[in-house]
């Protein structure tokens, strides 16, 4: 069973089914996979949101999806991994149980292959375009059978993107970062986002695990007030939590990887975690 699933994953990667560079570029009608055939990844519907529930044994869970409206009002949206669906965390293979609740994930999904056998609710095909009160559109897509589920650094590394930090504003060890996610090669600048951080945010540099207080002590970040970070390129781990100033739609930075070595070590650790899990079965 394990060997068969591993073969599926290698087939998806080797045949180019998982090609995130072109993911989400086609605005086709909702696509329903055919039994016995790998679906074309470019037809997958993409969305992201916070992981709020996991049924690890059955490869199911729920995501609170980011839409056009007020994020904190969005209801959990159930999903099921396809048998050949891939989960990645810290740029390495993972199981749902490896991913902490609250982690913001990127999903790529299709309509249920067979609605009669769906393990999660079967929704109207056009549900992603329906308006849901304060939540707006996009928070409950019918494409709830996932071919790919990945966290922020995995998404960025596959897409060839980084987060560029513009400035930090800090007070009492917490505050906000203004940043944008864009291609490593430059080009058109992406829209800036404001994210929160706090004293528990983990900073990874080479083999070091730092805290915000360490960056302040080294003079890299200010003790108080604003400082330009001059588009420093990093990778971010993103979660969600209520903002202290009452803005309930911002995402929160859980981790900052300052260099390639730090990210490689995180990937290696997750790879070993996954290998141990596979061997135990």
Outline of this structure?
The chain folds into two domains: 2-156, Beta Barrel (OB fold (Dihydrolipoamide Acetyltransferase, E2P)), CATH 2.40.50; 160-280, no CATH class. The protein is built from four helices and 13 strands. It has helices spanning 2-14, 152-159, 212-217, 260-280; strands spanning 45-55, 60-65, 77-89, 92-93, 104-110, 145-151, 161-171, 174-183, 193-197, 202-205, 208-211, 225-240, 251-257.
Strand portion: 35-45%
Cα-to-Cα separation, first versus last residue: 10 Å
Task: Based on Cα principal axes, name the global outline.
Answer: globular
Number of helices: 4
Total beta strand runs: 13
**Helical/strand content category:** alpha+beta
Give me the CATH fold name of the largest domain: OB fold (Dihydrolipoamide Acetyltransferase, E2P)
Q: Helix and strand string, N-terminal first?
A: HEEEEEEHEEEEEHEEH
Task: Outline the structure in words.
Helix content is 17%, strand content 37%. By secondary structure, the chain is α+β, with helices and mostly antiparallel strands. The protein has two domains: 2-156, Copper binding periplasmic protein CusF (OB fold (Dihydrolipoamide Acetyltransferase, E2P), Beta Barrel); 160-280, no CATH class. It has a seven-stranded mixed sheet. It has a five-stranded mixed β-barrel with strand order 1-2-3-6-5.
Characteristic key phrases:
37% strand, 17% helix, 7-stranded mixed sheet
């Amino acid at each position: 069973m394990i060997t068969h699933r591993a073969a599926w994953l290698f087939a998806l990667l080797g045949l180019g089914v998982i090609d995130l560079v072109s993911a989400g570029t086609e605005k086709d009608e909702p696509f329903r996979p055919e039994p016995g055939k790998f679906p074309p990844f470019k037809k997958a519907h993409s969305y992201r949101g916070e992981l709020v529930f996991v049924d690890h044994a059955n490869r199911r869970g729920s995501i609170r999806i980011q839409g056009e409206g007020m994020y904190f009002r969005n209801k959990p949206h159930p999903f099921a991994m396809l048998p050949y669906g891939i989960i990645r965390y810290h740029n390495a293979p993972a199981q749902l149980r490896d991913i902490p609740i609250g982690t913001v994930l990127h999903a790529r999904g299709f309509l249920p292959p067979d609605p009669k056998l769906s393990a999660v609710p079967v929704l109207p095909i056009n549900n992603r375009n329906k308006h849901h009160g304060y939540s707006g559109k996009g928070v409950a897509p019918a494409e709830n059978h996932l071919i790919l589920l990945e966290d922020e650094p995995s998404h960025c590394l596959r897409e060839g993107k980084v987060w560029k930090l513009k400035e930090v504003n800090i007070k009492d060890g917490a505050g906000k970062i203004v940043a944008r996610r864009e291609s490593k090669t430059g080009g058109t600048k992406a829209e800036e986002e404001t994210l929160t951080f706090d004293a528990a945010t983990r900073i990874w540099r080479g083999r070091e695990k730092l805290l915000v207080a360490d960056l302040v002590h080294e003079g890299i970040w200010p003790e108080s007030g604003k400082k330009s970070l001059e588009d420093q390129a990093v990778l971010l781990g993103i979660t969600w939590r209520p903002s202290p100033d009452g803005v309930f739609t911002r995402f929160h930075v859980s981790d900052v990887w300052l260099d390639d070595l730090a990210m490689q070590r995180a990937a290696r650790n997750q790879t070993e975690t996954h290998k141990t899990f596979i061997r135990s079965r």
